[in-house]
Amino acid sequence: MPHRSLAVAWVLAWACSFPAVAAAQLETATIVGIVRDQSGAVVPKAAVTITNVQTSISVRTETDAEGAYVVPSLRPGEYTVSAESKGFPRIVRSGVVLQVAQVARVDVTLQTGQLTETVEVTGATSLLDTQTSSRGAVIDQRKIVDLPLNGRDYNQLALLSPGVLPGTPRLASVNFKGVLNVNGNRTFNNVFLLDGVDNISYSNSFRGENVQLVQPSIEALQEFKIQTNAYSAEFGRSSGAVVTLRSRSLRAPGRTRVSNDAAAAL
């Protein structure tokens, strides 16, 4: 019995060593950048605030000695980036849209002026990823909804990315879902993540004829990203592609109103 308890404790300790790795495999995005003044000099200890437009949740940080800042673990969506430092008016950049598993660069230039003023800058983030070596494509909700699909299978949209081919005719004949040949790799060498959670069926029988445990409907998907090569080591457990799916946020304001009306009636 003591040996069994020791073995169980060892297994639990071993399992607890993995949360940091699992947390890295999320669908969240990251904003990086450098804060400079008009002369091009970096501004250390500048206050940077990242605000989600939809939820109004803000994350605050400061630039380091090199004027650089990093804000990870941001939900994809639209954000504003504001920066301020002593002797400069506050500057706000709007229209920053983050995609799933994206590393976006947002540099800020502080301008001289009245300290009571707020300088607003509007501009979309660059679609060219200059921060990572990963290759692939992001399929947004507009493509998911507007493009024709056979059998409402979102996996077909992964074929829009270079190097991605459909599965073998044998698998296609039985309508096997989630089969993609990426850069010559086997169909079952791909990784599927749904909202940061492993979504691969490890069963040898593949019940339901799907590589994935859960096959999201096209209405439930906000967007997904397929990385076909040179992706980060946090995903590096397979030789195929990494498909990261983000589900749509479910909001039910009607239910809130009903609850408030019921409470008022009481």
Characterize the structure shown:
It is a single chain. The chain has 266 residues and is an alpha/beta fold. The protein has two domains: 25-122, Immunoglobulins (Immunoglobulin-like, Sandwich), CATH 2.60.40.10; 135-247, TonB-dependent receptor, plug domain (Ferric Hydroxamate Uptake Protein, Chain A, domain 1). It is built from five helices and 16 strands. It has helices at 2-15, 19-24, 141-146, 169-173, 253-265, and strands spanning 29-37, 47-52, 58-62, 68-74, 77-84, 90-98, 103-105, 108-110, 118-122, 135-139, 164-166, 180-182, 191-194, 197-198, 221-229, 242-247. A five-stranded mixed β-sheet has the order 3-2-5-6-9, with no helix packed on it. Strands 10-15-16-13-14 form a five-stranded mixed β-sheet. Strands 1, 4, 7 and 8 form a four-stranded mixed β-sheet that branches. β5 (77-84) and β6 (90-98) form a beta hairpin. The chain is elongated and about 70 Å long. Residues 14-25 and 252-266 have low confidence and may be disordered.
Domain count, please report it.
2
How much helical structure, as a percent, in the residues?
A: 10-25%
CATH architecture of the largest domain: Beta Complex
CA radius of gyration is 23 Å
* Helix vs. strand class: alpha/beta
* pLDDT averaged residue by residue: 79
Q: What's the helix count?
A: 5
The string of secondary-structure elements, in order, is HHEEEEEEEEEEHEHEEEEEH
User: Got a strand count?
Assistant: 16
Question: What's the end-to-end separation, in Å?
Answer: 58 Å
Task: Let me know the CATH homologous superfamily of the largest domain.
Answer: TonB-dependent receptor, plug domain
Are there runs of 5+ residues with pLDDT below 50, and where?
Answer: 14-25, 252-266
Question: What's the overall geometry?
Answer: elongated
Content of β-strand: 25-35%
Q: Remind me, CATH topology of the largest domain?
A: Ferric Hydroxamate Uptake Protein, Chain A, domain 1
Largest sheet: 5 strands, mixed
CATH level-1 class of the largest domain: Mainly Beta
Spatial order of strands in the largest sheet: 3-2-5-6-9
